[in-house]
Amino acid sequence: MDTTSFLFAFGLTVFAGLSTGIGSGLAFFAKKTNTKFLAMALGFSAGVMIYVSLIEIFFKAKDSLVEALGESSGYWITVAAFFGGILIIGIIDKLIPSMENPHEMKKVEDLDDAAKRDQKLKRMGLFTALAIAIHNFPEGLATFTAALNDPGLGIAIAVAIAIHNIPEGIAVSVPIYYGTSSKRKAFWYSFSSGLAEPVGALIGYLILMPFMSPLVFGVLFASVAGIMVFISVDELLPGAREYGEHHYSIYGFIVGMAVMALSLLLFV
Question: Taking the model in full, what pTM does it have?
Fold first, then answer.
């Protein structure tokens, strides 16, 4: 792998992870949450991730594993790795206490409602930042791996993950700001939680790349597909519905799938 490919993939991962800072900025400069936009954006992100996972990434993993193991065994291992990815991210999700789980969507208006619970809020914000960082670890590996294999695919996944990181930035900033009265701290913790994505990419690269083969690549890619499907159905779509704009989230979901389908067709 050449340096240019590595830097491109890593740059995309940094972009996706640090978009939590955009959410933090929105929390400070917007007067009211645009719920229609966020619901549609999260639905769009889910549409992109589910479509690309099931139509593109899964079958690239299958092709690689069939090459390494043969038709029957390769397909079985692809399916096992796909559900293994779901199991891994599901365990990570289960280990995080529900109070600090980043799936709880926050609005900019919550800043006004929260002013009384200083220390509790600060603690909640810090745990939310930690929870998001843990979630972002496998997301970083997913973005990085996809971008190394197919730059166009990597861009699509990076944009989808960046969109879903925006409300996570709000979720960190809202409680920390009113727990510390410091916009700087709130922004920094929100921004830092996104750093787990490039860190996850680097650790994955350092551990796996020396052993990379069609077998390892296929298992990794199938697991990435499972991780992204889980994130979409467990975080993005429920998060979009929490904003109270059910139809907009579905419209966004369908548009996301259509855009991803079109982008893949254009590069056939």
Answer: 0.70
